[in-house]
Amino acid sequence: MAVATGALHTRILSVGAYRPERLVTNAEICERIDSSDEWIRERSGIATRRWAAAEESVVDMAVAAAATAVERAGLAPGDIDAVLVATITHLYQTPSAATLVAHRIGASRAAALDLSAACAGFCYGVSLASDMVKGGSARHVLVVGVEKLSDLTDPTDRSTAFLFGDGAGAVVIGPSDHPGIGPTVWGSDGSNWQAITTRTDWLAYRDTKSASWPYLTMAGQTVFRWAVWEMSPMAQKALDAAGVAAEDLAAFVPHQANVRIIDAMAKRLALPEHVRVARDIADMGNTSAASVPLAMDRLLREGEVASGGLALLIGFGAGLAYAAQVVELP
Amino acid sequence: MAMSEQEILSGLAEIVNEETGLAADAVQLDKSFTDDLDIDSLSMMTIVVNAEEKFSVRIPDDDVKNLKTVGDAVSYIQTAQAA
Q1: Is A255 in the active site?
Q2: Looking at beta carbons, which residues of chain A come within 8 Å of B38?
Q3: For labeling, which of A142, A143, A170, B13 is most exposed (least CB within 10 Å)?
Q4: Sequence spans of domains, chain A
């Protein structure tokens, strides 16, 4: 039997982003909860977030980010062999968002599937896409992180109403003449399955009159402890696995969960001053699977880091699931 | 190794000072973490994890909410060390 052969090395060829137009201030959030702009900024670092329009779907947002990424890679849509969409807010049980994204960008024959790894989804996608290109099952893979978390956010829950936002980020991963994506350090901890979850499942929503819409709930302190003290060592492991020292990094792009988590992680990793730490959360809130590519795109667009620099990525969240890797910025 | 109440209190005060900048002598047994010391839930978790390391005890998430005052935390740590 013949076997597929792939590329020796891979890298991120390009990144694209989509930020919905509507800016939502803390003052607007506080119309529904007993809180304040100051309280929200202190606890989370969030000043604003963006919400998609009512008629704007995760597919619409994914297509916008994906089309930009494909164009910036200098590729035609037909060059995309596979589309991975990381999301938890495509509210169809089937089919996937990915097939529609592939169709709408013109990647009409691409393999397509969604990934359910919540806030770790994008970094899971980077790992899978890189392995697909190395394994020879695809030459160019589009990886999209997209969320419309406003659909799953309870506007009256004062512990989560201010946290979440909407948006999309996308990258194209393809062959490279040098290593551009380091080994992925990843895993999960299902014993903390309930630390971040929806309040009910679809069956309870259908069958129980009193059941609420499946809004997201979170055990904030548990997640904070896990993120800072369990995930910082995983980020360090990803650096070690890549053979990259902290001083060789241009940027640290963690999932934008909470600025307090980001700051505590940066402190525990003892990152040197010159390493740019992504803090896109201040403007975008927590956009789950979309947060890492959105933050990466912003650092590049605003000239904070240069193409070719090394970035440490880490996604972590519901599951609990996590993935980290060092990448060369496109 | 079991420590005295005073030893735990001063160790805890150091941790609180490092996290919040509060003067160590403001950390007294009768003070409430939230109402008197203005420590929020995430800072509280940071203090708890640092206390676990410093005092070699385990403080599960579910127990953290019962630690209302500095005295609650000191006696929790003393009991845990004795166990």
Answers
A1: yes
A2: none
A3: B13
A4: 9-176, 185-328
The pTM assigned to this predicted structure is 0.94
A258 residue type, one letter: N
> What CATH architecture applies to the domain A9-176?
3-Layer(aba) Sandwich (3.40)
**Domain holding B24: CATH number?**
1.10.1200.10
Q: In chain B, what residues touch A219 (CB-CB under 8 Å)? A: 61
Q: Which among A219, A224, A229 is the nearest to B42, CB-wise? A: A224
Is 90 exceeded by the pLDDT of residue A203? yes
> Which two three-digit tokens encode residue A274?
């010159």
Give percent of chain A with pLDDT exceeding 90. 98
Domains A9-176 and A185-328 share a fold: yes
Please indicate whether residue A286 is annotated as part of the active site: yes
Name every chain B residue with its beta carbon within 8 A of the beta carbon of A220.
41-42
Which residue of chain B has the CA closest to A195?
B61
Q: Which domain holds residue B14?
A: 5-82
Substitution target in A229, A232, A262, A268 with the highest count of B β-carbons within 10 Å is A229
Task: Sort out which chain B residues have CB atoms less than 8 A from A42's CB and list them.
Answer: 40
Out of B42, B49, B61, the one facing A43 most closely (by C-beta) is: B42
* Whether residue A26 lies in the annotated active site: no
The structural domain count of chain B equals 1
Nearest CA-CA distance, residue B41 and chain A, Å: 7
User: Does residue B1 have a pLDDT over 80?
Assistant: no
